[in-house]
Every structure is written in C-alpha cells, then in structure tokens.
Amino acid sequence: YAADGVQEEVHMLTQPHPLYDLMVLRGSRCATTDFRAAICVAGDVAYVAGFPPESTQVCFSKGMIGSMTFSSMIVNAHADNGWSGGPVVNRRGRLVGVMQQGLGATIKRPDAISATRLHDFLFMNNVPGLSE
C-alpha cells in the first residue's frame, strides 16, 4: 500500500537475472520523480533508503562508499532486512546504486549494484535506462 492507503499493483517485466541479481517491476502508479544517475567513487558520502519489516515507513541511513568494482560497491551504512532493492543516492540525490545484499544476520557491509550496471541491465531488457 502507498502512503495514501491506495494499493499498488506491481507487475514483473523481466525474470530475475542470476548474473545481475535484478529484475524489473512496474507499478500501477507513476513515480513522483525521475531517478537521475551519477557515477561515484570510493569515499563518497551515500544515503540508503529501505523499508524494514518492523517499520511502517521508509528508513534512511547515511554512510560512505567503500570498495568498488564496475558492477558493485560496498556501502558502510546501516542496512538490514527490507533494504534490498532500495536506492543508494549521493549528496545531490542522484542514484549511484541499488541495495543488493549484506553479510550476516544484521548487515554490516551492505553490497549494492552500481547505477552503471543497473543501466546496462535495463538497456538489455528494452526498458528505458537512467538519465545522467
């Protein structure tokens, strides 16, 4: 349900991809704003959004981008169950990644897929990509 109490209908546009650990979902309502992408580097400040099961609202956590590869990055922000699929944004609110997974029962070093890899995945599935 959305914040206004209206139930969102979500449809799966692509099957989960084992290499990317991603799938594309489309909701029945338009997004309130477009996500603009940006490239980040290790040491950049990042903000993570997630929806923990014990919360009734979206939660935010601030951290720093740690080690990076072309496809993923470590974000040293608090993220636990329910944060997977949440956006990782920079100080300007630009998308730099999407939360993927973490280590341990409480995620100490969350892993995120880079916006570059996300854009490639969307392009491969004929879904409009991210703007820069």
What this model shows, in words?
This protein has one domain (11-125): Beta Barrel (Thrombin, subunit H). 8% of the residues lie in helices and 30% in strands. It has one helix spanning 115-124, and strands at residues 10-12, 25-27, 45-50, 59-68, 72-75, 87-89, 95-101, 111-114. It has a 6-stranded antiparallel barrel. It has a two-stranded antiparallel sheet with strand order 1-2. The radius of gyration is 14 Å and the shape is globular. The termini are far apart.
Keywords:
1 helix; 132 residues; Thrombin, subunit H; globular; six-stranded antiparallel β-barrel; 8 strands; mainly beta; 8% helix; two-stranded antiparallel ribbon
Give the second-level CATH assignment, the architecture.
Beta Barrel
Number of strands: 8
How far apart, in Å, are the first and last alpha carbons? 30 Å
Figure out the total of helices. Answer: 1
Mean pLDDT: 78
Radius of gyration: 14 Å
